[in-house]
Amino acid sequence: MRNETKHYINGEWVESNGSETIDVINPATEEVMGKISSGTVEDLDKAVKAARAAFPSFSRSTKEERIQLLKNIAEGYEKRKDELISVMTDELGAPLTVSEEVHYPMGLGHFQQAADSLADFSFSEDRGGHTLLKESIGVSGLITPWNFPTNQASTKIASAIAAGSPIILKPASKTPFAAMILAEIIDEAGVPKGAFNLVNGSGSVIGNGISSHPGIDFVSFTGSGTVGEKIMKNAAETIKKVALELGGKSPIIVLDDADVEEAAKTALSNIMNNTGQVCSAGTRVFIPQSMKHSFEESLLDQLSNFPVGDPRKEGIAVGPLVSEDQWETVQSYIKKGEKEATLLTGGPGKPEGLETGYYAKPTIFTDVSNDSVIAQEEIFGPVTTIITYDGVDEAIEMANDTVYGLAGYVIGKDPETIKYVASNIRAGRIKVNGEKTDFNGPFGGFKQSGIGREWGDFGIEEYLEIKSVHGMP
Ligand code: TAP
Fold it and tell me: What is the pLDDT of residues 346-371, one digit of tens each?
């Protein structure tokens, strides 16, 4: 049992003002694995005070000092590798291989990338008639979701540190422990007192408090659209800048010259990754009518490469969903899907032999209409939809017919068609043929997928204000 009821405020671990706690559940066992403090408004105020006090010196620290801090954090993160992997498997239910090969390197990559980006970053530019200065935005409130416990926090923390912006982090209550290890790493890395604070607690108290606090200048949030909307409304009261990374319903367009088996493999890896709990997951697969049958056969053949089960067991690719609530949500979509489309595999209920734990069956629907609920709403589980098209323009039109625009994927061979599709999908990130992720590539959404960009140099820009000085001597 982890009883971690302290917050990290002003360079030390301090007891909460209140005595209430929140249970953290291991989704594979359904058992309580630990407790965190349900922080209070007074705890948040203390953290804001510390961050404001740190602002004058932290915002004026040199680029070199901040590069060193980022490097120290990356080094500390590497030293805690085994522990981070283990904690993410227990709190999120990510299979050990997924924790090791996806979560761990993503959390690390942002610190390394921010150090590299900062080395080439210019905070001052002579533009002829004026000098342009880029200055820290002030105190940043970071609110993170549970689906990538280190990645989501690291990308925001790394950019804020690079920009010299003091931080108040509120991790998701379902997965707080990896973020608390990050706080220990940051403490040991030599980040000045008050420049990094972590306050645990509920979204309705600490998250809500961050978005409306007059002492916080900027809120970077990742999570659901519903909460994103609340944050924008709260932030409006103090005209606070917000960056929102919300959901998606991203298309995978399979071109008619694609290798069917490769396409099926890429589509399956995409949707099964992190048990489908990925905002940029490719959850609508557009396939030429002529390839439908062979593509479906190949999906069914290859599904056995993604075994579901105990995340601590070797060879498991798909773990449980993060919580009972998430399991219920996914089930309700699967039941809706049975009415709207043809079930190719999977369906409602738990996989055989996995009655304990929030396990869902990998589920594929075919004969799906792009305007059905399962093709328009984010499910956040191992569930995908197959939609057929005639001609690439029809595929693009349907791909864009969604309120979201976070990511898009194209699989095929002809370079001209790939370029055409990539430049016509209205989304913030396109991946071609399962290409690896570049940590300097900006990440964020068009339309209702969000506002602003994270990762690399664009991520740093979010934490900066622009000043023009006319007549600088
Ligand atoms: P959210 O409620 O949006 O939670 C995300 C973060 O916001 C958590 O830290 C949460 O705190 C906090 N929060 C909750 N209410 C808040 C409020 N009123 N003001 C400020 N912050 C608040 O997501 P969820 O309920 O965990 O998941 C619901 C759905 O959101 C999922 O099914 C999925 O569709 C989507 N989702 C999307 C993403 C991405 S990456 N876009 C990630 C996770 C979930 P607590 O943890 O304490 O509640």
Answer: 999 999 999 999 999 999 999 999 99
Nearest C-alpha to atom 21 of ligand 1 is from which residue? 207
| Structural domains of the chain in order of their starting residue, each with its CATH number | 2-246+449-470 (3.40.605.10), 250-432 (3.40.309.10)
In sequence order, the 6+-apart residues with CB closer than 8 A to the CB of 333 are: 373, 374, 377, 379, 381, 383
286 pairs with which residues across the strands?
Answer: 253, 387
Q: Is 298 in the pocket of ligand 1 (CB under 6 A)?
A: no
Query: CA-CA distance, 293 to 283, in Å (whole number)?
Result: 19
Question: What's the pLDDT score for residue 366?
Answer: 98
From CA 95, how far away is CA 79, in angstroms rounded?
21
Beta strands in 305-456 (DSSP E): 342-345, 363-366, 383-389, 407-411, 429-432, 450-451
pTM over cut 0.95: yes
Do 296 and 366 form a contact (C-beta atoms < 8 A)?
Answer: yes
Quote ipTM for the complex. Answer: 0.97
**pLDDT of 1 above 90:** no
Burial-class residue 258 by CB neighbours within 10 Å (0-12, 13-18, 19+). Answer: buried
Question: Which H helix or E strand runs over 331?
Answer: helix 324-340
Q: How far is the CA of 133 from the centre of ligand 1 (A)?
A: 35
* Active site (annotated) includes residue 461: no
The active-site residue, picked from 4, 91, 100, 245, is: 245
